[in-house]
Amino acid sequence: MNFAGIIGLISMVAIAAFSILTSTKNKALFLDAHAIIIVIGGTLTVALLSFSFKRLFNSLKIVTRKMFGKSRLDYLAVIKEIVELSNAYRTDPKSLTQKLNAKSHPFLVDGIKLISDYGFKDDELEDILDNAVRGKRVRDQEEVKVWQTISRFPPAFGLLGATLGMIALLQTIGEPGAQDRIGPAMATALVATFYGLMAANLVLLPIAEKLSDISSSDLTFRSIVKEGVILISQKKHPQYIEEYLKSFLSPNQRKADAKSGGGGAAPASTPAGKAA
User: Fold this and answer.
1) Does the CA dihedral 217-218-219-220 come out positive or negative?
2) What's the pTM value of the predicted model, to 2 decimals?
3) pLDDT at residue 70 in the model
4) Whose CA is closest to 112, among 137, 78, 77?
5) Calculated CA dihedral for residues 230, 235, 236, 241, nearest 10 degrees
6) What's the 3-state SS for the chain?
7) Number of domains within the chain
């Protein structure tokens, strides 16, 4: 479970509630149907015009899984698993697939099967795995694009709501009691702008940034797996494979392995993390 996503959701609700409850004595002002319909309804309408219903529904499922599901990928664990697989392939090539387990990352499983089941050469392996990584990158970019695009709409509709409110206000200028209505009318007009800014900056933009961060981590993970599979096929020395794959990691990530007592050419089997 992704506790950061849950804490972020709780914080978002708390900030929105705090902003509303402490900004004015008249809390009912923020229940203005005019502002809600223009901002929320307008955003949903334009989103449906921009993307198909199926794509929006899939994007919602993906963001729910990635925001609140397990998002941490264990780079060191998959490197250790690759090292063990390289040992197995050098000593007994037929035992390669037997070293995989139910928790092995699907991309690693597919790569190992390309070696054991089909016997592809190194350049063929590289072409196939490169294409798989490239395809995943494109799909991730499309997911992020949906939320980045939608995030542009709420502030615009908030401004539209404020503009309509100002038009209605200016029409009453000159009527009896108009001076007393200016303040409340302007406050009501700006509620739409408040909703637009909150929706974009507290909901939609953070979702897009989170998906982009998860995608970056996943692509690094897949690059490690891709290089590891190719090195296994080439029957490189396990120690070389381990050090080469660790070069993808930052110094802090490598220190985590040292503190846990990791290292060595033939570590115990450790299951890789699930895909994000």
Assistant:
1) positive
2) 0.78
3) 65
4) 78
5) 50
6) CCHHHHHHHHHHHHHHHHHHHHHCCCHHHHHCHHHHHHHHHHHHHHHHHHCCHHHHHHHHHHHHHHHHCCCCCCHHHHHHHHHHHHHHHHHCHHHCHHHCCCCCCHHHHHHHHHHHCCCCCHHHHHHHHHHHHHHHHHHHHHHHHHHHHHCCHHHHHHHHHHHHHHHHHHHCCCCCCHHHHHHHHHHHHHHHHHHHHHHHHHHHHHHHHHHHHHHHHHHHHHHHHHHHHHHHHCCCCHHHHHHHHHCCCCHHHHHHHHHCCCCCCCCCCCCCCCCC
7) 1
The span from the CA of 235 to the CA of 121, in Å, is 12
pLDDT at 269 > cutoff 50: no
| pLDDT value of residue 267 | 36
Residue-range definition of the domain harbouring residue 263: 1-276
Query: Is the separation of the CB atoms in 238 and 265 below 8 Å?
Result: yes
Contact 107/132 with Cβ under 8 angstroms?
Answer: yes
Instruction: Give the pLDDT band (50/70/90) at residue 1.
Output: low
Interatomic CA distance for residues 171 and 169, integer angstroms: 5
pLDDT, tens digit, for every residue of 43-101? 999 999 999 999 999 999 888 888 776 667 889 999 999 999 999 999 888 888 888 88
